[in-house]
């Protein structure tokens, strides 16, 4: 039997449309027991009643050039991560929106070299356990052909005090916590830090062990998912997926979007996301690139693909349509927001795709605009749609809006 999708829409106002290429995250969404919380490209945080979708409160931003790129419930409030001049981490009261505490990561990682998007301090990921909040922030610099990063991983207590930090000159991309372990994935390592994955003790911040694909170049790890005594990673270094043991030893690996020869070009795709359960692991790949340069008319056969694995064996695959800047998970379910496919530029692929990890069963919500952020809570999802204009078409597809719905049976 097929699955139906019912949803409601709330306008989030105007926004500059996305273009053919991806400009990075600028929106976020989270579900709590009684609210849907949205972080906007203008830096505002909006809370809506989960049942009626009436606005409950809004916290307007006073930070110049700030976009909210992460929101999540924590310690009875709503934690926020920004991309902006200050790279703030904040906690808002879940009932009123009042700011409980705030921390400017730019005080540690430095002020932006330029006031443009990719140079702004960026809170790349946030996760939590019952005791603490963990956040990773980075700042990018460029001097001619030389690129560098300054980054800090923070452990915040519930009152906003910093319990410990872990600093490197690499670019963190993803965090995950399980038991007393915090995993940090680094997608670029151009400096002295040369480990794509670091596992830290949540109590002290001490490094327990690391892992690296051992490849040349600064590209290392795209994402990490922790399980009890195991970790699964996507490798940007060799375009593979890995299952690691508790001490970082490799249990198995698999090719995901490794280089192929098409029309006298060598093409590859970065595996960007992973989600592991006790029964299965899913990996998700991104855009096609060529070793000869950024421009290519060909596509890697395994780009924009989700792969399901069990005990190291591939059990299903499916298309995710376009580039996924993030994923949302809840147990055996994973939601993949579909943004631009900047080479094909086909608006028909826009939408949200939800999969069952064990079987690959898919439910699709088609949208006019691109879906850039999503969260899952059992059968309920909330997603952000953004407008897009492709450079060779000139048509505005979609609008800036919140989509809240449920998945049921026909």
TrEMBL record:
Residues 78-208 form the Pyrrolo-quinoline quinone repeat domain. InterPro entries: PQQ_b-propeller_rpt, PQQ_rpt_dom, Quinoprotein_ADH-like_sf, WD40/YVTN_repeat-like_dom_sf. The lineage of its organism: Archaea, Methanobacteriati, Methanobacteriota, Stenosarchaea group, Halobacteria. Pfam families: PQQ_2. It comes from Halococcus thailandensis JCM 13552. It comes from the Archaea. This is Tup1 like transcriptional repressor.
């Amino acid at each position: 039997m097929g699955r139906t999708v019912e949803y409601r829409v709330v306008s989030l106002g105007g926004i500059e449309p996305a273009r053919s290429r991806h400009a990075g995250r600028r929106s976020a969404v989270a579900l709590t027991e009684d609210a849907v919380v949205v972080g906007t490209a203008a830096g505002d945080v909006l809370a809506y009643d989960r049942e009626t979708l009436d606005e409950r409160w809004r916290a307007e931003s006073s930070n110049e050039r700030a976009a909210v790129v992460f929101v999540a419930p924590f310690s009875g409030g709503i934690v926020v991560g920004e991309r902006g001049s200050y790279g703030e981490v904040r906690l808002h009261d879940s009932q009123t929106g009042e700011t409980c505490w705030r921390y400017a990561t730019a005080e540690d990682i430095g002020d932006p070299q330029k006031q443009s998007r990719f140079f702004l301090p960026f809170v790349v990921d946030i996760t939590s356990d019952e005791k603490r909040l963990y956040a990773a922030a980075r700042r990018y610099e460029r001097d001619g052909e030389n690129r560098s990063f300054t980054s800090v991983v923070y452990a915040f207590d519930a009152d906003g005090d910093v319990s410990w930090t872990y600093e490197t000159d690499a670019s963190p991309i993803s965090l995950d916590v399980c038991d007393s372990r915090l995993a940090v994935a680094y997608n670029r390592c151009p400096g002295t830090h040369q480990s794509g994955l670091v596992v830290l003790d949540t109590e002290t911040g001490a490094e327990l062990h690391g892992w690296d694909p051992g490849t040349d170049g600064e590209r290392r790890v795209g994402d990490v998912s922790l399980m009890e005594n195991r970790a699964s990673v996507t490798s940007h270094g060799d375009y593979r997926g890995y299952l690691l043991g508790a001490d970082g030893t490799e249990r198995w690996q698999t090719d995901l979007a490794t280089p192929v020869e098409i029309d006298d070009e060598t093409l590859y795709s970065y595996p960007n996301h992973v989600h592991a359960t006790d029964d299965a692991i899913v990996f998700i790949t991104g855009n096609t690139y060529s070793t000869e340069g950024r421009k290519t008319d060909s596509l890697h056969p395994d780009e924009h693909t989700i792969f399901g694995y069990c005990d190291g064996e591939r059990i299903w695959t499916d298309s995710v349509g376009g580039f996924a800047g993030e994923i949302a998970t809840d147990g055996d379910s994973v939601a993949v927001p579909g943004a631009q496919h900047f080479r094909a530029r086909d608006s028909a692929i826009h939408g949200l795709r939800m999969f069952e990890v064990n079987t690959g069963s898919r439910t699709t919500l088609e949208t006019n605009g691109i879906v850039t952020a999503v969260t899952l809570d059992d059968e309920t999802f909330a997603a952000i749609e953004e407008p897009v204009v492709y450079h060779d078409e000139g048509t505005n597809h979609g609008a800036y809006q919140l989509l809240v719905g449920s998945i049921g049976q026909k």
